[in-house]
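User: For a reading group we're discussing how well predicted structures match intuition. Take Bacterial surface antigen (D15) domain-containing protein. Before you show the prediction, I'll give you the sequence so everyone sees exactly what went in.
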Amino acid sequence: MRRILRIISLVLVASGGIFSGYGQTDPVVQRMFLVGDAGQLKDGHHPVCDWLKTHVDWDDSSNVLVYLGDNIYPMGMPPDGAAGYDEARRILDYQVSVVAGKRARVFFVPGNHDWKQGKPGGWQQVRNEEAYIKGLGLANVALLPGEGCPGPVAVPLGDKMVLVCMDSEWWLQDRRDRPGLESSCECKDQKTIVDALKDIVGLYPDKLIVLAMHHPFYTHGEHGGYYTLKQHIFPLTDLNPGLYIPLPVIGSIYPISRGVFGNVQDTKNPRYKEMREAIEDVIKGHSNIIDVAGHEHTLQLLQHDSVYYVVSGAGSKETRVKMGQHSLMAKEELGFATIEMHASGKSEIRFYNVGATGLDQAFYAAAVAPLPQPVATSVVVGRFPDSVTVVADSEFLAGGFHRWLLGANYRKEWSVPVKAKVFDMTGWTPLQRGGGTQTLSLRIKSPDGGQYVLRGVKKHVSDLALPEALHGDQFVRDIVSDGVSASYPYACLSIPPLAQALGVPHATPQLVYIPDDPRLGRFRADFGNLLAFLEEREPGNGKKTYNMWDLESLLKEDNDNTIDQPATLRARLLDMFVMDFDRHEDQWRWLAVDNGKGKTLSPVPRDRDQPFFINNGALSYLVASSWAISQLQGFRPKARNIYGFNYAPRNFDRNYLNELTSTEWRDAAEAVVATMTDSLIEAALRLQPPAIHGYSMDAIIATLKARRHYYVDEVMRYYAFISKVVSVYGSDKRELFDVDRRSGDSIIVNVYKLNKEGEAGKKLYSRTFYSEVTKEIRLYGEGGDDRFYIHGQDGGRTVVRIIGGPGNDDFRNEVSAPAGKTKIYDLNTEKNTFEGNGAERKFLSSDPAVNAIVRHGYIGNSTLGFHYNILAPLVSVAYNPDDGVFIGAGFRYTTHGFHKEPFKTMQTVSAAHSLSTKAYVFKYAFEATEAIGSLDLLAHAEVRAPNNTINFFGYGNETVFDKHGKQGVAYYRARYNSYDVDVQLRKRFGRVFSMAAGPVFQYFTMDSASNFSRFINQTAINGLDAATLYKDRTYAGGRVNVVVDDRNDVLQPSRGILWETKFGSYGGLNSNSHAYSQLNTDLSLYTSFNTRANVVVANRVGWGKNFGDYQFYQAQFLGTLENLRGYHKDRFAGGELFYHNIDLRIKLAEFNTYLFPGSFGLILFNDVGRVWQQGEASKQWHDGYGGGFWISPLSRLVLSASYGQGSDGGVAVVKLGFQY
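Assistant: Thanks. Here is the predicted 3D structure of Bacterial surface antigen (D15) domain-containing protein, as structure tokens, for the group to look at:
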């Protein structure tokens, strides 16, 4: 059938008269040009863009050009002044030039190369591209979606077509490098994206919807796993067309693995599949939707479930492609596609190559089903009562143990029926749903044109309510879900009088009930029969307000735009008084007042859901510890930890309260205490629904009154906390940063506006810092040619970091010492100047990251957003028949610093003890990121004493284990104590590859009394030297570690590889110690077939070899704890070993209990291995097999138990984590 359709289409294309007549009687009213992967020039030209300029009338406003991503090769748009910026600008300008000065519109959609090919800093690159496009000042050119948001964004085109833009790379980008919860994106997670797309599809049932994104859902090119014989024999030709170096077999590894499993940019990858399935579930079956994409450097048309899929990625490159499932056409040549909409509602998809002589020369065309005719519907609205009595949420009723564990909280308030006015929809128009993390919200237009928001009282917890590190953690999500009962359901009703008294702008929410009203339209299913709050969307007296993106743009564009910091402080102090913890950046709008030359912006709080949040359960109390989710510590007279309580606004406060002094903070806090009188507090709480007055209202009133006694002290401690490191920001205009180091260890920082002549004018910022409070000041010049002047007294303890930013900056330092207190960062590709006789340390680089600025740290692991130093406890438990029960405890302390990712330092201290053998193990690990230039500093110490115990059955691959002896396995135990210390420097090459090397010291000692009547003394049998067996041995040498780690998760990997290679060479430091070396390498491969990873295949292969004169405890060991399950630990010892392990890890189910919610599953395994020993001619391989189960009560914890069977019998093991 497909072949017949292709023949008919080709015949129609060849018959120009047919199309000509069709066009005359049914003219084209909208034509969309689709060009993907257009991001490179050829000899300074762009063949596709040149064709479009020549053959298309871009003064015709019915023409629309869509660039489908990868708009700039190879890594997107670097900052101005960075290497590659000029070429990136030329590439983008060439594409824009097609419509420059014309009436037609052009839309850019981001691709993976615009996101820096998925590498760190990709989000900033795509924002750079958007900023450049905006800076062109062309009203007909835009990048959508903006700010790195995922979309969807709908753009109506005429009355018959709608363009919907999505950023598919957002789905595939590392979560740490894309906007999330704290951004102002309309959609922040996959659910809200899908819901928004459903709304758009429902809004335009009778229009042609063109869904534009970079990644295709179906393709038979390279990203779909298509490789020819050429790639198997000459794989290097994909990197360089001239590298015809034959690599048979080896060359097949990459195409086969990529074709089967795919990297994240391939359709076979689970994350890619998840994206496709989520979106396709919305669009399938809709014949009025065409999905268009680039990514593959080909031209393809496919059809599946009545939806056409266009691949038009041959804008500047050509790659291989074939016909396959769902294919209608596939070509490997430069070109583009169009979608033409006719007046009748009929449309067709057409494909062109650059050899065509005009728009009548498409080499392929396919007709699209006509648009469905609008269906006339009538809405019958029933009669609704004026008010109803309804329960907010009845799911929080719980028994005694549940209340003890997770808290009594406000469960009664949630389950008590309250009276609410029924919302009358007459004259109101639903617009769009909101994208909150817990709250259903609907934007709605009033009869007078004002915009309001309906926010559901009932909460729905998603991953976005959790810190990034806990995403996917069902245990914590369940606690947070039940923790909704800790939120006072109608708290927002009591905030307006408190805010009014402090002069803080506020909404005026009303409690309403939304009936099952057909006028809700496509939102009826979600919002009908919903108890909700109705409040103004723009609570600033109805005036226009700005979101966070807008605010940041205003501050960056012009230094005449400023923040009203006293007003901001008042708003934040109200948050802290009522202990509303959920005050991240997207919880605010910004009201602008003209200040003469610019705007003064003040905050307008919104979404007041969390005042009076309490936390009184035993487990909830633990979860709210400083090392976990400390913002959930709850409403109380005195905060447990005011620093952790303010986790959500941690960056907000540091950015918008950076100029105020301690006196201003104290005065404002004391004003709050004075304003919050007994009568005001009581009146505010009486605004709660009368039905709940008899429960917690009196306790809340009493707590608010009691908070006044501790409040000022809390506020001042928080002021000191956020003043330890202070950032001061410039703009893209020119500024002078004046730094005056004063005697008495103080620093005055003034920032002035620079005029065109370079003279200082208006003072923009001024603050005096004292070293006992502020340890570090960071001055960000941002764009423009800025000046930095450091002068005054020598000395001082406060570090001043100057981050020049884009532009040719001037640095003048007159302070001579110490150099480490003044640090300058900028690009070495710019024409910066350095003057003065002062001492400083310069960090100049060609990497734009040296100037990176992320004020809010939306990126979960951003080095520039604030991170707390964390001291966290550690516990461990394990069992094996040789050691019995092993229990351990310790702690880990993590600190953060400037440009240190993922941390500045991490120290781990642990101790473990065997209840059976009485052995102890003490470990210390230290890691400092980029401690010496780009090198990390590592240090490890391990003490296995006293009573360290291993098994020794002798050397060789066929050693005997007498299971029936009187002592059993205990006869083969050997005790010795060991001390191992090393220090290494590590170089990281990206996120995957690292190499570390450094000196090591070892000390071993044995006591004959501890080994009495053991096999270790049978030296005539075991091959040991009786004369030197119990001599102390000391070594010094070096150790090298090489690691390739591409696992998607350290604890529960489901995809990726881990390849660790270690080499150590040691020389003896006494007469009993002889030189020896060890080389070990093992490679683990993890494979799963979907993002749920219900089945994971884990493979590991390893090899090791000793060189020189080594002792028995330095041998290569095979055993159940290392690599051969089903045998005792250290079962075989030799000079060389090899092993292979394979696991099938199956997730059986997820479960929910109050104590251990999580998931569990089975493990099936098979291990094989052997050792070699000099003088032995063994050919035997040892095989172990078995199974067990695993349980994961926390996303960061796995407990596994297994039983393995080998030739010596069976061995059971219980441990934290998997075997590998």
